[in-house]
Amino acid sequence: MGTKQGPRTPRQKYGEELRLRRVAAGLTQEALSEIVVCSPTLISHYEAGRRLPSPEDARRIDQALGTDGFFERWLQDLETKYDENFAAVAELEQQAVLIQQFALTLVPGLLQTNDYARALFEAYRPNHRKEDIDKEVVIRTERARVLDGPLNPVLWTLLDEAVLRRRVGGPQVMATQLRKIADLAEAGRLRLHVLPFEAGAHSLQQSLLTLMSFSDSAPVAYVEAFQTGNLMDDPRLVAFSRTAYDLALGDALSHQESVARVRAAAEEHVHGHQ
């Protein structure tokens, strides 16, 4: 029995078609790279769906393969509003039937209020323009529409208590953000667990983690750091990530206790009892 493959994103489909057309044309990655005027490694990234060619490179690919503008036209449909490191993750969120996310210091993007997101973007970009921040907030809000459906994806959210305590955007913004999370949890839209400070060290202390499962393909795991992200579909790494998640979940408060702690933290922000 073959290994179940992860879900194919539009970028991966683009890359696979590029590989098939290149092979049909009798070209190696090295030969194509010489025509496109780029490195063979970059062609490899294109074919794996890890990166997209620029319009100029796509035009040269069409010329090299005799594909009459095919890859340049298709490229226009793959343009994304997300950072390159996150584009594939955003696509997979739309396909997932189960998302299990762990947040180390910040509220996960799918759950952020507009004001919380705005405060984060302003902190990331000290020389920002209001219109740029407005655009970023709209993009994040649109991404959260995946939760508009009543059933899928099933969402588990595991929060280090540091997420509740770090004041982003001021007391009222923080309180509103935490109440939103508690409301979603009480409404049954997400399963909520908090890893309290008193739990001490835990298995996910070094990184945020998102696990995604699908109805017709293998699960994936995603970890992120400053300006970098790593989407993993290697079964061994995904299994290791899931074990770490399960271990951390075992140290967390129950759903009911977690909702209560989130609501208490919201009140503490408002009344200044931190």
From TrEMBL:
InterPro entries: Cro/C1-type_HTH (IPR001387), DUF5753 (IPR043917), Lambda_DNA-bd_dom_sf (IPR010982). Residues 18-70 form the HTH cro/C1-type domain. It comes from the Bacteria. The keyword DNA-binding applies. GO terms for molecular function: DNA binding. Keywords: DNA-binding. Signal peptide: none annotated. The keyword DNA-binding applies. Pfam families: DUF5753, HTH_31. Gene3D superfamilies: lambda repressor-like DNA-binding domains. This is DNA-binding protein. It comes from Streptomyces filamentosus NRRL 15998.
